[in-house]
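Bug report (template v2)

What were you trying to do?
Predict the complex of my protein with zinc ion.

What happened?
Run completed; filing so the output is reviewed.

Input:
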Amino acid sequence: MRLFEAIIDANHRAVAGDATAGLHPDEFADALPVIALTCIDPRLNAFFPNALALPEDQFIWLRNAGNIITEPLSSTMRSLALACAVKGGQEIAIIGHTDCQVARTPMALLLDKFSALGIERNRLPDNLAEFFGTFSSERQNVIKACDFARHSPLIGPKIPVHGLMIDIATGKLDWVVNGYETLLTQVPPTQPKMDFAAIGALGSFKDFDMGEMKFPELKIGAVALPGKPLALEPVPVAKPPAPPVIKSPLPPLRPAKVPLPPPLRPRGFQ
Ligand SMILES: [Zn+2]
């Protein structure tokens, strides 16, 4: 079982009430640390990295409003790329959540909220939907972000890019995009050289096929302002020390299983 398959399995067992659900990180050392992109919603604070059953030092957490990737060379993609190249991230997970207010705030309401902050319409970009990155479906937004990341020239062909949804009420994780499968099926053997100048001029990923996804202009999303990225810098990650070698007939000690603590299970369980 690969890392995120084990994570989903442990998560589902924990949500179902299995107090022993968890992971042994040492069994997945080659797949750690994990890089996660989530929304800024404070309700998520209690879920990560608990819901993934990962230790904090193996969890690189990036956040922006709506867990949106707007283009393959965006500020968020820059941070994802450096999380891989500088911090050694082995797998990427873009994790949307249910009841995302970024997807549920009508544009008229957003304008009212900006106005209340003293920001009138004429100070905002002309195309608000394009600027803020618009989505009406949390799942489709995750699929779109995975496509951008999977095909970004900044992410190498060895890094799985997963898409997940987390239930904001229960912490239950579900697959949206299985990055192990897209790693095998969607990456061409030789990646074409990207035309960075053309991408910059267009302001979008010209080769990206939007398919049947619909992004009505009456909803909002968000992207980092130029020069003011919303995404947090990756948290420094250190590899755990190797387990001690014990010269005895007893089996060597192994790091403890990482359980899935609250809110997935009551406090006090080990
Ligand atoms: Zn959200």
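What did the reviewer find?
Residues 10 and 21 are 5 Å apart (CA to CA). The longest helix spans residues 3-15.
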